[in-house]
Amino acid sequence: MATKAGKAVVAALREDIDRLFDAEPDVRADADDSVHQMRVATRRLRSVLRSYRKLFDADEAAATEAELKWLADLLGVARDAEVRAERFTDLLSDYGDAPTEITDSLVGASRRAYTDAHAEVLSALDAKRYRRLRSVLKTWRTDPPLAPELARDKATDVFDRVLRRDRKRLRKLVFAEPTATPADRVELLHDIRKGAKRLRYSCEAATTVLGSDAGDLGTRAKRLQTVLGDHRDAVESREAILAVAAHAHGPAATVYELLADTEEAAAGRAISHYPAAAAFISVRN
Q1: 4: which strand partners?
Q2: What is the C-alpha to C-alpha distance for residues 112 and 110, in angstroms, rounded to an integer?
Q3: Which of 23, 180, 209, 253 could form a disulfide with 248 if both were Cys (CB 3.0 to 4.6 A apart)?
C-alpha cells in the first residue's frame, strides 16, 4: 500500500522537532556550535511547515510558523555575532601586528555581542512563550493538525508537487538576477539563497518518499545556498569593518582598509561560483 502524505510529513516533522529539542540542552550549556544547530533545526522545521503547508490546518500552521520565526530570529542574533567573531579572528590572524584596538573593536565587540545575545536566548528558553511553543511542538511531533483530504493522498504525488513548486519559485528568482540593477542585486541574491535553502529542506524532507532524485536536487540546492551564503558573509563582514573604520585614524585605518579589501576579494571569489551552482535550476523537469 502506498504511503499516505500525512504519515510521511509527520515523520519528517518528528525528525526536525527532535533535532530542535536535542539542541536545547547544549544551548543552555553554551556548548560549541549549539546555537547554530538549534537555529538550523528551527529554520528547517519552519521551512517544512511552509513548503508542505497545504497538508496542515492553515491557521494552526501559520501560528506555529510565526513562533518558530521568533525563535529563529532570537537565535540568529547570537549566531551572527558568533560568526562575526570567528571570521574577524581568522582575518586578523594574517596581521600579527594588528593594533589591539582593532582586535577589540572587531573580535572583542562581536564576542561581547554574542554573550549578550546568548543571555537573551537563555532568558527566552525559560519564559512562557518558549514553553508554550515547546508544548505545541510536542503535539505536532505525533499528532499535527493535518488537513484530512490531502493527508490521505499518496505521499509521492503530494511531495513531488511541493518540490516542483519550490523549484519553480527558485527558478523565477534565478532568472530575474541577470537583469537586476546593482542596487537590487545583493538583496535578490539573498532571496535566491533563501529560496535555495527552502528547496533544500523540502527535498530533504522528501528523500524517504521520493528517493535519490529528491536527494540529488537537495544537494544541488545546498551547494547554491552555500555559495551565496559565503558571498553574503563576506559582504556583511566588509560592511561591518567599514563601519568601524569610519572612526579610525592612522595605522589602524590602514589595517581596516586592508581587511575590507580582503573581504571584497572573498566576496568576488564566492560569487564567481554562482553561475555553475545555479545552473541546475535552468534544467526543466
Answers
A1: 154
A2: 5
A3: 253
Query: Looking at the structure, do residues 2 and 137 belong to the same domain, yes or no?
Result: yes
Examine the fold and report which residue of 116, 131, 153 is the final residue of a domain before the chain moves on: 153
Range of the domain at 130: 1-153
4, 144: one domain: yes
Q: Is the dihedral of CA 104, 86, 82, 230 positive or negative?
A: positive
For residue 99, give the C-alpha cell. 593594533
Domain boundary at 105, 123, 153, which?
153
Do 87 and 233 contact (CB within 8 A), yes or no? yes
**pLDDT band at residue 231, thresholds of 50, 70 and 90?**
very high
Q: Tens digit of pLDDT for each residue in 62-100?
A: 999 999 999 999 999 999 999 999 999 999 988 777 788
Using CB atoms within 10 Å of the CB of residue 228, give its burial: 0 to 12 exposed, 13 to 18 middle, 19+ buried: buried
CA dihedral 52, 191, 269, 77 (to 10 degrees): -90
pLDDT band at 1 (very low <50, low <70, confident <90, very high): low
DSSP string, 26-42: HHHTT-TTHHHHHHHHH
Terminal alpha carbon distance of the chain: 27
User: Rounded to 10 degrees, what is the CA torsion of 107, 30, 230, 51?
Assistant: -150
Q: Which helix (H) or strand (E) holds 90?
A: helix 58-92
